[in-house]
Structure formats: C-alpha cells, structure tokens
Amino acid sequence: MDDPAKPILVVGATGRHGGTGRIVADTLLDAGQPIRILTRSIDDRVAALRARGAIVFQADLHDRLSLLPALESVDTAYFTYPIASGVIDAAANFAGAARETGLKRLVTMSMGPAHPKSPSHLGRAQWLAEQMFEWAGFDCLHVRIAAAFLENIEMLHGREIREEGVIRNAFPDVKVSWILGEDAARVAAAALLTPERLPAGPAVYPGSPHQYTQSEIAGIIGGVLGKPVRFEAIPVDRWRARIIELATGDDRLNADMAAHISAVAGALHVMPALPPNNMIEEITGKAPQGLLEALETGRFVLDRPQLTAT
C-alpha cells in the first residue's frame, strides 16, 4: 500500500446506481485511511461523508482546472463514471490534471464490455478512457466487472414486477453472472488498500459464482414475493425504447444507458456471457451475495431507493 498518511481521492462517492463510490469511501474510512471526495454538488450524501472525516472538493470532471485542488498531493485515486455519455472527455480532463499534480496510481471501476470492439458504444468509450489513463503513465488497475448488477433488476423491472408480475427485456434466457454493487466496490477498496492481493493489471475481471437465467430470476423473485413472476422476451429495439421511456421518470436512466444495455442484450444472443469466477472472494475474503440471499437480508430491495450498505 502507498503512504497511509496521504489521502486517497475518491471520484463518484455520491453516485447512486450500484453506489460503488460511496461504499469505497466508507470502506477506506473504516480502515482509517484519509480520503478526499470529488463531487459536483453538495447534498446530504456529502454531509454524511464529511461528518466521517472525508475532505470534500466540489469540482467537475469536465472542467480540468476545477480538478487540480482535489488532486494536489494525492498519490492514489479511485475513478468511476456513470453509465452515460462523456467518459472520454472526463477521463481526458482527469488524466491531464492528475499528470500535472503527480498522481501515481489509479483504480478504475469499469465494465466487462469495455473493449475496443464492444457491441456497446459506452463499452468502447470506457475502454478508450482507460487507455488514456495508461498513456498518462499512471499505475492503473481497471476493475472490469464481469457480471450484471442486481440493482439493475429494481431499476429496470421493479414497477412491472410489482404491477404485472413480469420481467420484460431483450436478454436471451441464458445464465449470466450477477452481483451487488457493494460486492464490486469491495474489490475496488481492496485494490486501493491491499493491491498485492489482486492479480497483475492493467485489467482484472471479477465476476460471480452466482449465475441465473432471466426465468430463474423471475422464479426467485416470485418466490420471495409470494406471487407468480414470469420472464417475457421482447425485441432489442422495443427494449431500448422501454428503457428510454423509464428514463422520463427515473434520473438514474438515460438514452445512452438504454443503448448500452440493449446492445449488450443483443450481443448475448450471438456470443457467450463472461464465465463465472470466484475472484471477489479470493480478493476480499468474502463471497458475493446471490439474489435470494440479497433479497432475504435486505441488501437488495425491489422498491426504489436501494438500501445503503452498512
């Protein structure tokens, strides 16, 4: 680990979907590690972290000059960006500011589809953003999560599950790995605190031993709710339009996310899903929760907002 007296900068500590930045920040604070957090706006989520000892910097990833004070005298940082457009510009600004201030090591929360030939435009953009971090000369570790977030089920299907007892999407009914955002965050926190426990980078692909088909997900949720829940496959274009429609009432969603999710769904009809693995338990010493356990323990709920990790 780097000098523990120096603060680690956490980008995305007030993010909502998956909440990895907040969990990383809390985990570092629990370990006695000084942190700085970078946020665009000040709200109750920021106040809670400040009360725990985090130093708060208000800045914008799309404004390089605003990033300089937060990065001053920082050797290590955690970077994450929403599933939305703009990651390349944000990465360029961050890399430029971080080179100027002498950043040495960077842990990035990434996605399995981050690849130069990804079917998703956001997957290709994420890959290019990570390339820029490497070109900037940082010691990089890109945590490319090889699983879907369980939180997606609530965000994309919570209403139709409650009202119609159905999960509609364009994914094939094949087994895919699933994890909670908090389990992904624990890997990133370990990469910051105990980097020697992770495989050599620049990219690692933590997945999950928990794999489910869409029908199996429907069955598990139906069992917990005590009512029938079924899976209904729909075309990719209809699925994309449905997510865009949902975005009008849920600011966690956006048109770029709709394009990303529907593109990944379409690709899984012609290519295999990433295989399961036990990397999260091997790195953190704690196995990720499966869907049933997450529902029974309240780590995952089907009503917005998601429960906050403790």
UniProtKB/TrEMBL annotation:
InterPro entries: Ergot_Alk_Oxidoreductase, NAD(P)-bd_dom_sf, NmrA-like. Residues 6-243 form the NmrA-like domain. It comes from the Bacteria. Pfam families: NmrA. This is NmrA-like domain-containing protein. It comes from Sphingobium yanoikuyae (Sphingomonas yanoikuyae).
